[in-house]
Amino acid sequence: MPGAAMLARSLAVGLALLASSARAEQVTVFAAVSLKTALDEIAAQWGGATGNEVVASYAGSSQLAQQIEEGAPADLFLSASEEWMDDLASKDLIVAESRRDLLGNTLVLVAHGAGAAPVEIGPSLDLPALLDGGKLAMALVDSVPAGQYGKEALTNLGLWDAVEPSVAQTENVRAALALVASGEAPYGIVYGSDAIADDEASDEVSVVGTFPEGSHAPITYPAALVAGRDNATAAQFLDQLSSPEATAVFERLGFQPLGN
Fold first, then answer.
1. Could you give the C-alpha distances from 15 to 8, 9, 24, 37, 128, in angstroms and in order?
2. Average pLDDT of the residues in 49-67
3. Any idea which positions bind molybdate (predicted)?
C-alpha cells in the first residue's frame, strides 16, 4: 500500500515540523543602531541553526534604555556605552550576573565622497576651515554615545568651541553617517564600524582620520539580559554573541571583540 506509506511518512514529517515549531523561541533584542549590520547577520545565522527568531529593535542607546525603563518587552540590551547600562543596573533593570563587555570600537572622521584627502586629527586641526561653511554631522552630543564620545574627543583636543556652531546633531550615529553620505554634511563623526558596515552609505563616504584613543573614553559595548524576562533562549543568544562565528562577523565589520 504505497499510498498509505506515503501518507504516514508525510504525517510523520508534519508532526516533526510542528514539534520543532513548538520548541522555537523568540528573543527580543534592543541594540545600539551601530550594531545593526553585524547583529542582523549573526541573528540570521543563529536562527537558521536553532530555529529560534531574533526580533531586534535598533536606536540610540539612551532611547532604548528609556524604553526598557518604561517597561518595553526587551529580553536583551546591547548598549554602545557603559553609561546607559549602568543607568539600568542602578534601577535593577538588568540581570547583573549576565552583564559582559562585548565589543570595542574606534571613532573616526568621515567625509562625503570616495577618496577624500586624509587629515591628522589633533589640536592643530582647523575643523571650521575644513568644513568651509558646511555642517559636521554628529549623533546627539548629550545623550547618544557616538555623539558623547565625539564631543569629548573634540573638547579634549581643544576643537569643540570653534566647531560647535557648525554641528548638525542627529538622533543616532547611522543618521549622522547618512547626512555625510547624502552630501548634506561634508564631514561627520561616527564609529569606525559604521563606515564599513552600512552598505547604503559606505560607498559614499571616506574615512579621513581616526581620533586618538586618549582623546575620549574607551568605546565599550556592554550587553546584559533584561530583568524580569523569563527567557532562557535570550541567555543562549547572548552567549552566541561571543562565539567564534559571531566574533568573525564583528571583526569583519570593524568591531573589536573584547573576549569578556
1. 11, 10, 14, 35, 67
2. 95
3. 34, 61, 146, 173, 191
pLDDT at 213 over 90: no
Q: What counts of helices (H) and strands (E) characterise the chain? A: 12, 11
| Second-level CATH architecture of 25-104+220-257 | 3-Layer(aba) Sandwich (3.40)
Q: Is 61 annotated as a binding residue?
A: yes
* Residue pair 68/93 in contact by the 8 Å Cβ criterion: yes
The structure's pTM equals: 0.83
DSSP state, 17? H
Q: What pLDDT score does 115 carry?
A: 86
Give the Cα separation of 219 and 149 in Å (integer).
Answer: 8
| Cβ–Cβ < 8 Å for 224, 85 | yes
Q: What does the pLDDT read at residue 259?
A: 73
Listed by start position, the domains of the chain span 25-104+220-257, 107-215
DSSP state of 198: -
Cell of 133: 561653511
Mean pLDDT of all residues in 169-184: 94
Q: How far is CA 36 from CA 41, 108, 122, 194, in A?
A: 9, 18, 30, 9
207 labelled ligand-binding? no
What three-state secondary structure class fits 57? strand
**How many Å apart are CA 29 and CA 225, to the nearest integer?**
9
Residue type, 97: E
Q: Is 191 annotated as a binding residue?
A: yes
